[in-house]
Amino acid sequence: MDVMEKLEILADAAKYDAACTSSGSDRPRAGGVGSTLLRGCCHSFSADGRCVTLLKVLMTNVCVYDCQYCVNRSSNDLPRATFTPRELAELTMGFYRRNYIEGLFLSSAVIVNPDHTTERMIQVLALLREEYGFSGYIHAKAIPGSAPELLDQLGRLADRLSVNIELPSERSLALLAPNKQRQNILSPMQQLKTSIEISREERRRFRHAPAFSPAGQATQMIIGATEESDFHIMRLSQSLYRRYQLRRVFYSAYVPVQESSLLPSPLTYKPPLLREHRLYQADWLLRFYHFQAEELLSEDHPALNPLIDPKCNWALNHLEAFPVEVNQADYRTLLRVPGIGVTGARRILEARRWRTLDYDSLKKLGIVLKRAQYFITCSGRITEGLRVRPDGILRNLIALEQPALLAHEPEQLSLFNS
Q: Which of 24, 244, 255, 305 has a 20 to 30 A CA-CA distance from 36?
């Protein structure tokens, strides 16, 4: 099997790993000029915030584990391939020199054992950094169960590391991935957090101190394969952000890859893509808008509203906090208004130092008035002729996102936390 045949297999096998911003798109003439499908290209963000194109590939899809949800599980009958460290390093450099990519996203199935797999990944990164002088962005997957010394070496060669938590609960992990232990996943996260903090402190004191995973760490969990609620998932993500200082939690809608009594049937199951989208929106509120998981959901209302985004849903359930006077509200209060984002709130604070803001001013500042107008006043005034009945606001907000739903019966639209 030549290198391009291996790439075909291992780039395709890597598409289920969601720890990148995108994984390329399928166009009718795949393989033509500019195609990102057959070569496993994806996009991510470097430590300085730049969007970069990466070669997204597995080191191998030969796996000793038999995780029920994974296409690369040991019991699955599919073509197998393994790159040698030299092959993958030369392939990456070849793509880089042709300006196809700016970096590498390297993951792997577990071949032989976690330590052996990590050693091979280290060899690839060492060849790129030390022999080929490659200084581009590298995101590597840390294999749970690997020796701490190997994770330390990997972190000094990569820009970002990630340890997949896989499933939202220990019970689900024991059911679908009995070879994996929750503690083997959380221990590397703690080690990476500590090493990243030590490295940052050293680099503040010594200019040429070596960096350790300067773009931080991330994780991924599969959504829909098991029965955990959105509330459970959001509380778990909140805990991971606080405890391990993660840069990102990625949510991957489960895609059926086999018949199993432990998993949803491929014949009737559809990947919960809208649910995945709502989880990303709620996750954004946790990371940048100072929300708590307990504010968005609860044990009584554990699911995100599929009809409107979580911020609008929260606002409709807390109308006592509105309207907000944009000429007086502080930064955190402005962030809670639908239609006002982080950039918009900062622009409002800056602009009102020089003048009193009205609705025309807000529009020029980039505020989404189609959403915000129901929740704000400008010098005590609301938009002329605007009606602010909760059911009317709900219908209008749904119309902005999903106009087709307006054909449903009114009682179906009267959903707030359902």
A: 255
Which DSSP state fits 408?
A: S
Q: Note whether residue 302 is domain-resident.
A: no
Domain that holds residue 366: 310-413
Task: Show Cβ contacts of residue 203 under 8 Å, excluding neighbours closer than 6 positions.
Answer: 209, 211
Spatial distance between the Cα atoms of 219 and 229, rounded to a whole number of angstroms: 19
Q: Which residue has the tokens 């577990």?
A: 110
Q: Which residue, of 265, 294, 323, is where some domain finishes?
A: 294
- Chain Cα centroid distance, residue 404: 28
SS (H, E, C) 15-71: HHCCCCCECCCCCCCCCCCCCCCCCCEEEEECCCCCEEEEEEEECECCCCCCCCCCC
Count of beta carbons in the 10 Å neighbourhood of residue 78:
12
Q: What is the pLDDT of residues 378-411, one digit of tens each?
A: 999 988 777 677 778 888 888 887 765 555 444 4
Same domain, 107 and 19: yes
Beta partners for 60?
82
* 212-229 pLDDT tens trace: 999 999 999 999 999 999
- Alpha-carbon distance 269 to 256, whole Å? 8
Specify if 304 maps to a domain. Answer: no
334 and 287 part of one domain: no
Domain check: are 172 and 317 in the same one?
no
